[in-house]
Structures
1.
Amino acid sequence: MTRIVVLTGAGISAESGVPTFRGAEGLWEGHRIEDVATPEAFEADPDTVQRFYDARRRALRTVGPNAAHRALARLESAYGSELLVVTQNVDDLHERAGSIRLIHMHGELRRARCTACGARPRWDDDLADRPPCPVCRRPALRPDVVWFGEMPYELARIEEAVVACDVFCAIGTSGAVYPAAGYAALASAFGAHTVELNLEPTDAVVPFDEARTGLASEAVPAWVDEMLARRAT
Ligand code: NAD
């Protein structure tokens, strides 16, 4: 049995046409992070924040998974419950490629969260026009996206998988956002082999056992093929 945890970040979706976070001088689609990805920004200017995520949600309709997302779905076909994909991404490209054992630790664009009753309904429309919550009918919906200063989802389940895994692979993540940035070191401390697949090496606090550079659409299928060959022997 080889237990694998894969942590993905915005880099895996870059070649699908979803811009990364810090790519252009720390901006996300031209916006400063503190203006669109904090509870304070939402409190100060909810319309701008809602419009920002409405645009991101609509943009998902024009993109699709790439070879890297598809390769991870292939890996799951072989490894089944021994594989867990943890994504920091709020897009839905992993599930559209076929991944099932998947945790969206930073939430999902295609979900809303009701600030009045806590419901988290699937959501594909805009939120800026303040539609009512389908559960409590109050116009209190926000994007179900984890902002800076908020608690990511399913941390206990993720940490349990990270400490128990044999192989930990980080793909397309800058390693700047905690707690995700600490998972490679945690996996390593518990004896896992750690691999990084990224366009460029990152400044990991604890170096990865292997750091491979290249496009995710090439590096991920190559790594997956290796893991599948290992499974077969
Ligand atoms: P990041 O933008 O901070 O870092 C992206 C990393 O991907 C960089 O290290 C970069 O070198 C690498 N990269 C870029 N293109 C690549 C490619 N083609 N192949 C391989 N690697 C590539 O992303 P992050 O670490 O995920 O942190 C950003 C946060 O912003 C996330 O937590 C997420 O919630 C949010 N975000 C999500 C999306 C999305 O859902 N697709 C997009 C932007 C931001």
Note: Residues 9-11, 13-15, 18, 20-22, 28, 88-91, 106, 172-174, 176-177, 198-200, 202, 215-216 surround nicotinamide-adenine-dinucleotide (CB under 6 Å).
2.
Amino acid sequence: MSKGKLVVISGASGVGKGTVLGIMMNKRKDLKFSVSATTRDPRPSEINGVHYYFVTKERFEEMIASGEMLEYSAHNANYYGTPRAQAEEKMRSGSVLLDIEPNGAAQVKKAAPDAVLVFIMPPSMEELEKRLRGRGDTPEDQIAMRLKRAVWEMDQRHWYDHVVVNDSAERCAEEILKIIAD
Ligand code: 5GP
């Protein structure tokens, strides 16, 4: 029997999801991060098995075919997905945080109607672009692609259970912790 709930956190690339999730997990040690699989290259600071499982396209497609993915999506010219087994294992000891985009969020909601879906908005579009560039780890052609996608992603917020604004990562983390408190 699972003990925790699935908490989906979405928001455009550069909105600060990683920072917000980090603060939440620092404050609530029982919260676990669902480690996604992806075919994109690791960034310099990323560790395989911690931030993502970095896999080949062939391996990813194998995982889809064998039903190993709870959800997945192809975006930013790569595959991203949630391996089912690690999410279910983590749910046995508490709630699990999924940092996934709207196509995946919709699949989770269908598979697990009790999941809580939270969408993080930037304070403004200008601020989002500034943060995305300021991060310094995303090539320029990727930035344009991600900004275009950000507009579509933000349009999806209406069917999420909750929409929060990341005006301050600390405040935003507190707001989400209150939402998932019970
Ligand atoms: P990044 O390449 O910046 O790490 O992530 C790009 C986007 O992919 C983010 O919006 C993130 O939420 C999303 N993403 C990361 N992992 C998954 C996943 O397992 N499934 C889905 N559907 N999206 C994911």
Note: The chain has seven helices and nine strands.
